[in-house]
Amino acid sequence: MSGMGLSHENMKERIFNYLEYMSEKDIREISTAIYNLARRKADKRLREEEQKDA
């Protein structure tokens, strides 16, 4: 369970359902935000691995 009391699978399902009702512009904005978040997480993980190896 997570902060909302839902499993991660349920949260993903809700997000996918909401996307059906979004405009193309909204979906582009959301996908850009998700990409940027993924890049930040990947960069953080790489920095932590580099510090661990140093």
Write out key terms for the chains shown:
single chain, mainly alpha, 54 residues, flat
Please describe what this structure looks like.
This protein has 2 helices and no strands. The model has no long low-confidence stretch (mean pLDDT 92). It has a domain at 23-54. It has 54 residues and is an all-alpha fold.
Subunit organisation of the chains: single chain
Structural class: mainly alpha
Strand content: under 5%
Order of helices and strands: HH
What is the average per-residue confidence, as pLDDT, rounded to a whole number? Answer: 92
First-last Cα distance: 35 Å
Rg calculated over all Cα atoms: 16 Å
Number of helices: 2
Instruction: Label the overall shape.
Output: flat
Q: Low-confidence segments, ≥5 residues, pLDDT <50?
A: none
SS elements, strand count:
0
State the major sheet.
none
Fraction of residues in H or I helices = over 70%
